[in-house]
Every structure is written in structure tokens, then in C-alpha cells.
Amino acid sequence: MSSNPTKTVLVVDDSPTVRQLIEINLKKLPGLRVVTAVDGKDALEKIKTEAPSLILTDVNMPNMSGLELVAAVRESDKKTPIVVITTKGDPGDAEKGLAAGANAYITKPINGAQLIETVRSLLGL
Amino acid sequence: MGSREDMLEGENRALKAEVVELRGRCTSLDGRFAELRRAVDEIGNHAGALENLFVASSRLHGATDLPETLRVVSDILRDLVGARRFTVYMHDDRDQLVPILREENDTNPTAPPASTSGLASVDLKLGDRKVGLVTVHELLTQKQGLTPLDHELLALVGQQAAPALLASRLLAERDQRTAVLRDFVKFLSSGKGLGMSTERER
Which of B46, B50, B75, B85 should we substitute to test contact with A (largest number of A Cβ atoms within 10 Å)? Predict the structure, then answer.
């Protein structure tokens, strides 16, 4: 029996480059499994099957934006931590994300150490 | 009694000297710890830089067609370097620089128009031959400036994007020619082509 049960993190971004970079960073944390989705709609499907412990989502994506995803998740799930990844330095997207129910935000370009610290803190690792 | 007091005073002096020595060692250890902390941070930054370069390189090598290659270049410049406005140019047949990818800043009306000069430019090279240019005009507002990693990423784009762009362009041209040839063969095998040549022969 493992003393450190696996937790699943769902990474939502339409850029395969960003998904790959986040995945590489998160795999440094033991007991963490990474699942990816290409947009908000894809993420909602993955949430049903994967029941992630944490969601990391980009804001600007086709089909369904990150902010719409946060709002949709929060309709039925108030607990799962959500981190919004914003491109813009101005607080607009970050504030909108937090207002929609996200727990934290990080900005691009992604800083691996900051990403790991945010995830670790929200998952209590 | 006197000797006991002397002994205790002696012990007190020795203990005070020990405290001073231990304080000195603590200060020295604090300095060493700070040094190690800096080294760990440096290694962490270096590892982060290598991860960025690995992702950028593997994405460029994995791109198979022109739109995908341009998308990868765009992702690297926007998401890894943090460029807000940038242009990718290729030399045409007359050796003129032609923009093939342009990311414009649509939120800042005062931004200067894109040109081949900018915050940073890197040649797209095939060996020693310049085949294009990447120019970064503006960074995301949260970026203070280009870091050494950003310059390494731009250099990597300069070295590896050109072969990827040219290979995907050649593949696209080959596909177009193949399609034309296929149509031509189809036309001939339908009998219309043969019919035309028969008319001419007559």
C-alpha cells in the first residue's frame, strides 16, 4: 500500500508546448498524475472521468475559455482547487478568474518553481 | 571559598569564549547555507532553462507541416519567451524579407508598427545561409526584459526553425505537385487527353 496516494492534476491549454512544459514540471512532484485537455469543453469531459484533485487552466482557448470552465466547474464543485494561467500581466484576467471561483493564478511565461510551489501549496504536498 | 569562586569565574570565561566561538561558527554556517541556497536556486534555474529548451526543440522537430511549424514557433515566442508582438520573415526568391507570421498587439494602439528592427532579432539560418529573420517587437507586460534563457530560446529558434520551415514548405510544394500530376494522369487515363492528341495528329 502506498503512503502517498496518487493525485491527478488536469492541465488545460490549447498550446501543446505549454502542456508539455507544465507536465514536465509537475512530474517532479511524487505521487502526482497529469492529465491534459485542449480546451474547456475537453476539460469538462476529462473531469467526469478523471476526477482531478486540481485543475490548471489557460484563459484564452477556442471552444470554451478558461474563465467559462472555472464558472462551469464551480456550479457543481466548490472544492477542487483551480489555478488560472494568464498571459496578460495586467490583473484583468487574473481578477476575473478569481472572481469566477479560481483559487490562484500564475502568469506566462511559466516559471517552473512558482508552478510547483502553487500546486504543492494547494494540494498540501 | 576563594578557589571555588576563581574556578567558577574561569569556567564562566571559558563558556563566554565558547559562546563567542559558537556565534562565529553560526555566522559562518549562515553564510555557507546562503551560498548553498544560491547554488540550489542556480541549479533550479538551469534545470528550468534546459526544460524550456528541450520542449522548444522537441516541438520544432515534431512539426510536420507549415501551419504546425508556424504554430510551434508562435507558441515558443509567446509562451516560453513571453513575446507579445513578433514577426517571422523568410527570404523570397528575390532575397526580400517577407513576413510569414505576425503576432500583433491588438490591445495597445500606441504600439509602433512592426518592422524588422525590434527588441531582439535573430537570423533564421540554414548552415551559414540566412533564410529569414525573427523579430521580437514587444514583451508581455509582466516581463522586465529578455533573460539569458530568452536569448538561448531565440537562438534555438534561429537554428532549428529554418530547417523545419523549409522542410514543411518543400513538403507542401511536393504535395501540390503530386496533386497536379495525379490530376494530369487522371485526365490522360480518362481518354480525354488521348482524344485531344488524336485530333491534333489528324
Answer: B75
- Residues B59-81 have pLDDT tens digits of 888 877 788 888 899 999 988 99
Model-level ipTM above the cut of 0.85: no
Query: Measured between alpha carbons, how far is A67 from A114 in angstroms, rounded to an integer?
Result: 21
Domain count, chain B: 1
Q: Across the interface, do B51 and A17 touch by the CB < 8 Å criterion?
A: no
Residues from chain B contacting residue A109 (CB–CB below 8 Å): 79-82, 140, 143
pTM reported for the whole predicted model: 0.75
Can you give the pLDDT at residue B86? 92
Q: Which amino acid is present at B8?
A: L
pLDDT for residue A90: 58
Q: Are A17 and B79 in contact (CB under 8 A)?
A: yes
What are the extents of the domains in chain A?
7-123
The ranges of chain B with pLDDT < 70 are: 1, 105-117, 192-202
Searching chain B, which residue's CA lies closest to the CA of residue A89?
A: B142
Scanning A11-124, the segments in alpha helix (DSSP H) are 16-26, 40-50, 66-76, 92-100, 112-123
pLDDT at A106: 92
A102 class by beta-carbon count within 10 Å (0-12 exposed, 13-18 middle, 19+ buried): buried
Q: Which of residues 96-125 of A touch B (CB under 8 A)?
A: 107-113
Dist. CA B141–CA A108, nearest whole Å: 10
Q: Give the CATH number of domain A7-123; options: 3.40.50.720, 3.30.1360.200, 3.90.550.10, 3.40.50.2300.
A: 3.40.50.2300
Spatial contact of A16 and B73, defined as CB atoms under 8 Å apart? no
Low-confidence ranges of chain A (pLDDT < 70): 1-5, 88-91
Domain assignment present for B142: yes
**Taking the mean position of all CA atoms in its chain, how far away is CA A110?**
13
With an 8 Å Cβ cutoff, is B76 touching chain A?
yes
pLDDT, residue B105, reads 56
